[in-house]
Amino acid sequence: MPEGKTRIARCACGALEVRVEGEPFEVHMCSCRDCQRSSGSAFTYTAFFAPEMRITVSGEYRTWRRLAETGRYDDSCFCPNCGATVFGWVEGYPGVTKIAVGCFNEPDFPAPTKLCWSSRKAAWLAMPDGIEELATQ
Fold first, then answer.
1. Which of 50, 36, 31, 38 is nearest to 131 (CA)?
2. Is 97 left (phi over 0), alpha (psi -120 to 50) or beta?
3. Alpha helix stretches (DSSP H) within 1-134
4. Model's pTM, two decimal places?
5. Residues pairing with 6 in the sheet
6. How sure is the predictor about 3, in pLDDT bands with cuts at 50, 70 and 90?
């Protein structure tokens, strides 16, 4: 198993917890319409952890599956009590676990390296230097 710090992601009420050991292999933002709707914001900010990472889920959750704009499924797992989405999986990354970065409550969490679906970003959203903009993903 890759070495790294243990991170804990929690929903808003704390009933659902995801513990992961190791570093994400990718961190990105997404401005597709589905991510905007699901986050209630201009984009999502998500970390992706490789299948070999030790990930432990504690607490009850529900899964909602949608067909993404890519034509592949996207599973979002959320707390049935507070409704916060904490983790999930996407068909395009077999075995990979995605975790909503805001659920970690770590101000020094690694910055995103790219914005997916930049063609759908809010007109006011300007990217800092170093963040690649991908029109689609």
1. 31
2. beta
3. 33-39
4. 0.90
5. 21
6. low
Indicate the pairing of strand 132-133 with strand 114-116: parallel
- Dump pLDDT digits (tens) for 32-56: 888 888 888 999 999 999 999 999 9
126 residue type, one letter: A
Residue with tokens 């804990």: 8
Q: Where are the alpha helices (DSSP H) in 11-134?
A: 33-39
Cβ contacts of residue 83 below 8 Å, gap of 6+?
12
Structure tokens at 15: 């009933």
CA distance 133 to 39: 19
Least Cα distance to 8 among 88, 82, 105 occurs for: 105
Decide: residue 6, CB within 10 A, 0-12 exposed, 13-18 middle, 19+ buried: exposed
Phi, psi of 67 (to 5 degrees): -90, 115
83-90 contacts at long range (C-beta below 8 A, 24 or more positions apart):
83/12, 84/11, 84/12, 84/13, 84/16, 85/38, 86/9, 86/10, 86/11, 86/16, 86/18, 86/61, 87/9, 87/18, 87/57, 88/63
